[in-house]
Design goal:
This protein has 425 residues and is of the alpha/beta class. It folds into 3 domains: 138 residues, no CATH class; 27 residues, no CATH class; 233 residues, no CATH class. The chain contains 15 helices and 12 strands. The strands form 3 sheets. The chain has a 7-stranded mixed beta sheet with strand order 4-3-5-10-9-11-12, sandwiched between helices. A 3-stranded antiparallel beta sheet has the order 6-7-8, with no helix packed on it. Strands 1-2 form a two-stranded antiparallel ribbon. The longest helix has 18 residues. It is elongated and about 75 Å long.
């Protein structure tokens, strides 16, 4: 097929060729790159179908905003870039799909930067796609999509290859390389695939009730829920709110800032909520990132069914409990020891598909504040994430996981974190 489908070229496609494009579209939308989202498949399916019906030239940003996203006819495209942002993400996901060897020879649906009209191209290996049929069915000869105006392949193959070599030698190769799937892409993709705003859920800096305020993590959750149910009088003073704890710990903010350095590249709406000031319905509106461990009841609930979870008490020590080795308390610290005596902290990081929330969530939670800061930095660090993917294995990179981290601590400041245990679900 020619590299730029014109209305005449599309009109020249046979019904069978158009069906092949639709079949390829369905493969794309059923892949892991698209199936967990609503927005990206909707827009891609719309522009492909409009192009096949000969209406490609009518695909403009405003038109798509109105027809696909329900915007008003006079909406401001400058202040509401939903079409541009969605198209950019679709391009990235298409590139990731075709980068996988299993899809290299498939018919390609491409979106050239600066255009909303898709292009339909032969696979990278320039081999016709063979449609597999049951053995009892007659074999269908492979169809290579060509336009009416396309010259014989033998005339344009060499110039195309020469052009590819030029692109690979210059800036084109750098642009293509950036589109490849990286360990960071693999880690964050399930989260970013979900629609809706991204919510950071941070724990309040609550005032504990003196020694022994919570003997177990279960009591810590109960205490947090008691505070959540506390109703301040309408005339409550600023001090009243401050006592309730409407502040956050500095290390939790550091963790959020590290994670935000990744999230901001998505140009997605984000919001920050305190653990005691949010509810399940709000968390269901989009993907969520939970920060903090013992002081965040949402984190404790989400990791409770997992292999690794927090356990212990103020009076003894808090530790990360391994369900497969419950008597092992090697990952523990005493939160009531002086800060200068604490030289190591531990944390849990996890990516889980949470049924109560209806989406994927990310967790960065330390036993102490240093562990939480280290967990946030780990998830935002490409080198650390590369090591995480190496441990998980690329074949399992889309699955849920939970990892235990350790970090050195000096005067409350965390060093680089390392993986000491990993569970892939």
């Amino acid at each position: 097929m020619a590299s730029s489908p014109t209305p005449h070229a599309i009109a020249a496609l046979s019904a069978e060729e158009k069906d092949r494009v639709r079949a390829q579209l369905d493969r794309l939308l059923q892949s892991s790159h698209f199936r967990n989202s609503k927005r990206y498949p909707t827009l891609l399916g719309y522009i492909v179908e409009e192009t096949l019906e000969g209406r490609g030239p009518q695909l403009k940003e405003r038109t798509l905003g109105i027809d696909v996203f329900g915007r008003s006819s006079d909406y401001d495209t400058a202040s509401d870039p939903i079409v541009r942002v969605t198209i950019a993400e679709i391009r990235k996901r298409i590139a990731q799909y075709y980068h996988e060897d299993a899809h290299a020879s498939e018919l390609r649906i491409e979106l050239t930067p600066g255009s909303y009209i898709p292009e339909f191209l032969p696979g990278r290996e320039h081999e016709p796609e063979v449609v597999s049929e049951p053995s009892s069915a007659p074999q269908i000869a492979p169809v290579v999509l060509e336009t009416a105006s396309a010259p014989p392949r033998r005339h344009w193959l060499l110039p195309v290859l020469a052009g590819v070599l030029v692109l690979l030698a210059g800036a084109g190769f750098a642009g293509w390389y950036r589109m490849r799937s990286t360990p960071m892409d693999d880690l964050w993709r399930p989260l970013f695939a979900a629609d809706g705003p991204i919510t950071y859920c941070l724990p309040m800096s609550v005032h504990r009730k003196g020694p022994g305020w919570a003997n177990t993590t279960e009591q810590a959750v109960a205490h947090a829920m008691d505070l959540a149910d506390t109703t301040l009088p309408a005339s409550g003073t600023f001090f009243d709110h401050q006592v309730i704890g409407e502040n956050v710990v500095f290390s939790d903010v550091i963790a959020m800032m590290k994670l935000e350095s990744v999230v901001e590249q998505q140009h997605r709406p984000v919001r920050v909520r305190l653990n005691l000031g949010t509810n399940l319905n709000e968390l269901r509106e989009g993907p969520a990132i939970f920060i903090g461990g013992l002081s965040n009841q949402w984190t404790l609930k989400l990791i409770d069914p997992l292999r690794y979870r927090f356990a212990g008490s103020d009076e003894e020590s808090y530790y990360i409990r391994d369900r497969q080795d419950p008597n092992n308390k090697q990952w523990s610290i005493r939160l009531r020891d002086k800060m200068t005596t604490i030289n190591r902290d531990y944390a849990i990081i996890a990516r889980v598909h949470c049924e109560p929330l209806g989406s994927v969530c990310l967790i960065a939670a330390g036993i102490g504040m240093s562990g939480t800061a280290a967990a946030g930095e780990f998830l935002a660090n490409p080198e650390h994430v590369r090591e995480l993917e190496r441990r998980i294995g690329r074949a399992n990179r889309d699955r849920d996981f939970e990892a235990v981290l350790t970090t050195s601590v000096e005067d409350g400041i965390a060093g680089p974190a390392e993986i000491v245990a990993l569970d892939v679900r």
